[in-house]
Amino acid sequence: MSSVTKPVAIFRFSAADGPAFFATFLQQLGLPYQEIRIDLGESVPLHADQFSGIALMGGPMSVNDDLPWIPTSLALIRDAVERDVPLIGHCLGGQLISKALGGEVTRNPNGKEIGWHRIEVTNAALGQHWLGTEDGLVGFHWHGEIFSLPPGAQWLARSAACTHQAYVLGPHIGMQFHIEMDEATISHWCEEGEPEVGAARGKPDIHPHVMATQQITKVTAEYLPAMRVVADHLYRRWIQNLRG
Questions:
Q1: What is the spatial distance between Cα 200 and Cα 228, in angstroms, rounded to a whole number?
Q2: Domain limits at 116?
């Protein structure tokens, strides 16, 4: 990767939804990146060819919201596909890629999916290539909407609460789950998201796909190391297609 001179663009849509381990991974390999902080009013670039790759992080908004940066982000995604600049989308990012390429983003009929939940690989060959496993993983989730597979995409993964957890389209990958998470980000989300989690869980019937924040933090030490292995594998696959 020493030949890569253009930065990877990392789109941050919310201060709480930073690149976390994804940035750590790039730093460890000495790969340049540029964080574009949409939450601070920074502009979406018009063209993708100034970047070696484009990563889109998560956020609490919907891709269907009337926000000024969404149309320009969708246009940039389409430009990246035309120019073979690899895209990687995390949660909201995966939804943006799907919508830009002809998919739909809708409310999850199963309600919110929050916490650590099992992800099943739907294509063994793709699972081995992108995730390093055909057996799936326990991934981290925090979403209430879901994407459809954009035309031409291959279905990679699903969970009990969410039919489409990941898809690939050539060098591009979109995920509904948060493979980028680190300990600090999980702790912050649990602290800030306690009201949302409480409302989503409901009483007396506890929502089966929403973990209590106390339970999330309790099992993070158990599940995060294994997800980190998958994240490292996935990111290494993705950077193989960076554009100079």
A1: 27
A2: 8-181+222-239
